[in-house]
């Protein structure tokens, strides 16, 4: 978030994060409908900006600023595609923390257009160390994510 673009990272509201994403031509398939793989990118942006607004930055994790070097790796993702989105639609990507335990974070994400649910995803993220093995999320980071 910057002074020039205060909403660039979306906003935290009522215990969840909301990020506006416009659908561009590159996000669509030959029929003009959003390609299913584009939702993975939209949801990733939502998760990244959720972390950013909660004060957890990927570069700080990788540099070991919270103890040892850490990263987040998507372990599992279930996506339901309910309705098509098309070029120029503005989607709201909602991200809500469902569970945070040890080395596991579970999030619920939704893509909505004008309040209409387009797609939803249940995402399990693993916290990993520099060696690629699961590691417990430091309490300082967990505390930042819980109230968000």
From TrEMBL:
The keyword Hydrolase applies. CDD domains: 4HBT. GO terms for molecular function: fatty acyl-CoA hydrolase activity. PROSITE patterns: 4HBCOA_THIOESTERASE. Keywords: Hydrolase. Coiled coil: none annotated. InterPro entries: 4-hydroxybenzoyl-CoA_TE, HB-CoA_thioesterase_AS, HotDog_dom_sf, Tol-Pal_acyl-CoA_thioesterase, YbgC/YbaW. Belongs to the 4-hydroxybenzoyl-CoA thioesterase family. This is Thioesterase superfamily protein. It comes from Polymorphum gilvum (strain LMG 25793 / CGMCC 1.9160 / SL003B-26A1).
């Amino acid at each position: 978030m910057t002074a020039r673009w205060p909403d660039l990272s979306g906003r935290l509201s009522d215990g969840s994060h909301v990020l506006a994403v416009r659908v561009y031509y590159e996000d669509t398939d030959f029929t003009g409908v959003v390609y299913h793989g584009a939702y993975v990118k939209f949801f990733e942006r939502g998760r990244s900006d959720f972390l950013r607004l909660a004060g957890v930055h990927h570069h700080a994790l990788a540099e070991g600023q919270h103890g040892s070097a850490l990263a987040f790796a998507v372990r599992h993702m279930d996506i339901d595609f309910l309705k098509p989105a098309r070029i120029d639609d503005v989607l709201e990507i909602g991200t809500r923390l469902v569970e945070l335990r040890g080395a596991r974070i579970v999030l619920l994400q939704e893509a909505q257009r004008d309040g209409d649910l387009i797609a939803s995803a249940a995402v399990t993220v693993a916290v990993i160390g520099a060696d690629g093995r699961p590691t417990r999320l430091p309490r300082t980071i967990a505390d930042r994510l819980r109230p968000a």
